[in-house]
Task: structure prediction
Amino acid sequence: MIKAKFRCVTRERKTSFVEIFRTTPTNTVCPNFYVLSHANGCTFQPHCEYCYLKSTFWHQNEQVAFSNVDKMVRDVRRWIAKDNLESYILNTGNLSDSLAFEGVRPMAPALVEEFRVAERLGKKHTLLLLTKGGVLHCKCLFKIEPCANVVMSFSVNTPEAAAEYERGAAKPDDRMEAARRLKAQGWRMRIRLDPMILGFDYSELLRQVRELAPERVTLGGLRAEKNLAKFVREGLFEGLVPDTDGKGMARYPRTERVALYRQAVEALRDICPIGLCEETRDIWEELGLKPDDKPCNCGS
Ligand code: SF4
Result:
């Protein structure tokens, strides 16, 4: 297994902060969305065992937070001014954790203020803050009023799975506590249960998610693109099988994936809309979910 050294730096981003992200492969039920490229890498160390960052240049060298927040805010303001967009979601957690760099380079409060303007103007543009952070990482949000055009989303897992594979992130109890407090304060809340890993018991976590009653839940099964295996501890990807055309991601076999999702779908069906991350329409339908609605974390 290849190991990396970590160094966290800040530098200016020269190119645009806001870009469209079109999901692939196209046969999966995923909405397109806009991405805010606020950093390359993640300060949660060690990186989560399965994280795609491990097969990138940034993981091998340094974790970079882009420091020119003024330009970031200007780019976001320009995006909010546009209408007829193909998505109205600006996802800050697709290329990195949304809040992992807050201690090094704060950006969340300034972004929330921009989306307050969108809210006042009755616009659909929405900021998505997706994190594996806990109470400490969300400190900046406890101090400000919630905004209807900002969605908080926590990626959670069982304590056992996190202790094994997400050691650098906040503990799941801490993430759920932060989610409970922010929701009680009035913030919009979504949950990602991703990646679900075979061999772990999700029942207690599902009970807690039920109690939290988020507006949406996204389920994802463990998956891996081809280059990742050499950076990952032996064993984690053992049960995955390659995609049929060899181009997509390796996943658990279909029956095992459906069984994994089914427990969560049954536990949460009456609580909120549920989506599946990077899954095909037939799997949604087999579970009685609504692919045409695309009720995903990254969707409007
Ligand atoms: S928190 Fe997200 S971005 Fe950071 S290491 Fe884990 S999976 Fe990767």
In short: DSSP finds nine helices and 13 strands in the chain. Residues 254-268 form the longest helix (15 residues). The CA atoms of residues 223 and 251 lie 5 Å apart. The chain has one domain: 8-293.
